Amino acid sequence: MKSKSLRIDILTIFPGMIEPYVTSSILGRAQKEKRLVIKAHDLRKWTSDKHQKVDDRPFGGGPGMVMKVEPFDRALKSLKIGKRTRVILTSAKGKVFDQRAAKRLAKYDRLIFLCGRYEGVDERVAEHLADEELSIGNYVMTGGELAALVMSDAVARLRPGVLGTSESLAMESHSEIGVLEYPQYTRPGIYPLSKKKSWKVPSILLSGDHKKIQEWRRKKSKDSLITPFLGATL
Question: Structural domain of residue 17, as residue ranges?
């Protein structure tokens, strides 16, 4: 029986940044096959003034502008959030997104990403509208769109049928916490650079001895402890 498709909604003031990526390659194919539904929504649609203003000056003073709570609130009400939905605010102070978080989020039927801009988002969005705040690393970006795309991609590929085979998921980096994938090679076995120099594939991979190949791959898989940290990206 075909599994239920995952729906992802991305709320942003720049929907044009989202659409080219999610309609291409694997995500685009998965949408055509009805395994995914990814929609970018223009947050300005849910403003209440003629100038479609989504930001204002921060209370207490300070540089820059802060995104208002009203458009996010009105948008989420309009989208009619149901059960098994997770609302995620891309946030400079959110917990760092990793493969464990991707697996957790892949179990939901619907994800809604709230993309920040400017100096940040009114804290009431985090307090009352979002289920969690997530970051993709210890750096600051100009907005949350790229973070939303990164997380959407990582989550979507874990859903049944989005990738070609389940083996692709089982034998890759981070499929187990702290374990990275072994080196991969393909043809040609010898890549000539000059008459005296070439790049060669390890001979064990050309031996046909599957037991020794597996042993080599296990040795090459690097065990590195991945320690979560607080990121700082929108």
Answer: 6-156
